Amino acid sequence: MYKVNTDLNKFSYKNIDLANARVIVRTCLNVSVDSNGKVTDATRLYESLPLIKDLALNAQNVILTAHLGRPEQRERKSSFWNVAEMLSQSLRENHIEVILVDDLTNEWIDKMTHNINSSESKKVYLLENIRFFEGEESKDKTERMMFAKKLSMLADYFINDAFADYRESASTYDIATLLPSYLGPVFLKEVEALSMFNNVDILVSVLGGAKLSEKLDALNSLAEISEKVVVGGAMAYTLLKAMGINVGKSLIEEDKLDVAKEVIQKYGDKLVLPVDHVVANEFTEEAARSAYNTSDQSIPEDTIAIDIGWRTIKLFEETIVLGNYVLWNGPMGVFEWDKSSKGTLSIGKAIEKNGPAYKLAGGGDSIAAINKLQLKGFNHISTGGGAMLSFLAYEKFPTLDVIINR
To answer: Among this protein's residues, is 385 annotated catalytic?
Structure first.
């Protein structure tokens, strides 16, 4: 688990003298969009607004970088055209203009390098999806650094407010080696909340989702500090298969069975796994309408598990109430389908009801369940599920380390 050994307030963007300052900000605008690129959930945008507004009103030039999705090429679905419009609407009352910058031409870079915005109209320049640009995520560090240098020419200071975008890239890591760098309020809030788990009494961790491999390090790390680790979703089926339990046609990772056996051998006394399941004949919403609850832990050969069963719900609820700290990441089943949503929603409700506990949730699916159930009482909800688990699993967090150790 990552441990902060310094006063992070020293690295707050509030320490920048914004007058006459040009700032480039890595923010998180990775909102949910439909197939046409229309925003369907703007939670991350609204979370980023306070910093953007503050900088726009007080700094001279503000340039935003962010990504949307995982595009392999320029495409309308992953473009910021709709995000820019939403940002414009949110800042309009403050007379702040949002300008979407499609490309980093030499002419535009030269203009931004030599001309400080001195007009009465405040402007925010939003670069198009940063993953559209060659060099942003290049495996060649030289190419990445070349792009970072191009970005650094646009500003005097770099501010990272994108905790969720924790992987090293030109606009999150390399640029911080080139400019005086600071942290935004969202980043600081995430670190403060997660640091609570450095010294816990009785922690119950609840993990779900599809792949054990994606959460293996976090599972091992959390098992070290947790009283119990509740495991649902498809990642549980790989563990059950490793225990010799029949999982039918359920989704598992065959290449992770040996690793799963090691986890069970080391932490078997802490793991709380499903004892029954909701199963369907096929993995379709139509087949799910005829789903039924198994009588025990074994999943029939011709079926696929799509949710935890009622006995498991009761077992998980009884475990969650034990914790005075509760961490939740990932669904218990296919919660998007009505027939297989009960497990995820029941577990979310059980966490909410554990009133005295410090409760933290993270990850898109967990947030979706929280919104669907209108759950209250969480001390912190992290919009960066992967980043949250990485913070808890490792002793290093590169995009933070590069700023506080520079």
So the answer is: no
